[in-house]
Design brief:
The chain is mainly alpha-helical. The protein has helices at 5-31, 47-50, 54-65, 84-93, 105-108, 124-138, 140-145, 147-166, 173-189, 199-206, 210-213, 225-246, 252-258, 270-302, 304-317, 333-345, 378-381, 412-421, 427-439; strands at 68-73, 76-81, 355-357, 361-363, 366-368, 372-376. Strands 1-2-6-3 form a four-stranded mixed sheet. A two-stranded antiparallel sheet has the order 4-5. It starts with a helix and ends with a helix. Belongs to the cytochrome P450 family.
Amino acid sequence: MAIDPYLAAAAALCLLLHLLLRGFLRRSTSRLPLPPGPRGFPIIGALPLVGAKAHANLARLAKRYGPIMFLRLGSHGCVVASNADAARAFLKTHDAQFANRPDPLSARDVSYQRQDLVMADYNPTWKLLRKVCSLHMLGGKAFAGWAAVRRDEFGRMIRSMHGLATKGEPVVLSDVLVCALANILGMVLESNKFKNIVLDMLTGGAQFNIGDFFPSIAWMDLQGIQAKMRSVHVRFDAMLTKLLQEHEAPDFIDKLMENRVTEDGQTITDVNIKALISQDLFTAGTDTSAVTVEWAMAEMLRNPAILKRAQAEADAVVGRDRLLEESDLPKLAYLQAVCKEALRLHPSTPLSLPHFSYEECEVDNYRIPSNSRLLVNIWAIGRDPKVWADPLVFDPDRFVAGGEEPIHPLRSWEKDLLREADGHDFLMEKRSSTWRRSTG
């Protein structure tokens, strides 16, 4: 069959125009400057400037270089967003480009090669896992369904603290909270109880791993972090395998099992379920919440007037003749403000989990190279003096309607950013209940 020469010529012309346009766009983007940032040192880049307190040091650098800053960390390029407008540019305007995650060595084994919800790339499996979690664990109806679990475990926590205090023994608040929150998640997921199963995972994952910044020597595991995390993974995997095989009570695992295959053929595997339980729910749902509660308790002890006001509100709404119920929380406006202020001033994850862009893109007239990592400095955003009056002062009134300072208009994406700072957990309701039970 003969090919129409006019059609062939038109197709060739369209292809040529496409190639020319793509080349022009690439040249236009390549002419854009990189975001400002420190030059760093040969080979190691700006790693010494970041240091141990990365969030504080990056905030200090942002005062010099601006809210969008580019650094070379070892062999990787990293862009840092340090105010709300910069965060919006990356996470809202260019959310599709930065919806993926890099592949940190410390999380590789415990996330089952990134088969979980937190570290996975943005793909159909990720969407399915997120949908199931939202519907059957974190959604409003599902959250209310596990109220008895939270009430029983917090009751045990308070009785344990009271028993220790009666004996004159010290109460290590962080340990008590981590234990209670782990038990809550364990009881939601399965009828067995788990205690202190995430400690090694948290400590190993938080360590600076030189292999993440110099992949060519990652195989040497100079600090032994990968071997430690692999050992944690083996122990946790054995426990999760037994859990999947032996669980009997109807629970969240059953919901995952029931939604293994969708109408379009997407599947949830045993590996996805294990990764979701170990990396996302236990690791991100215990220590992060405990740290936030501990900071809130510390701030209220440092500010007795705030503590007395929160207690007075609880006495007026709940009284002293019964225990607080989660249905009381919407009426405790000041306690909700204490929660928000603690999240603002002391985010449990000062730097967001890193995002990753596979392609070069333009953000606010800057060129962001391909394979760049993105960090959002949540700690700096919460202390931005252009947004918050007296940002270093713990003042819940800034979130109370009719207070001396107007309420900051937290947009929906900013609320998501606050949630990301604390990982995947039961959010504000769980913390409010914990603080009231611990202070009342």
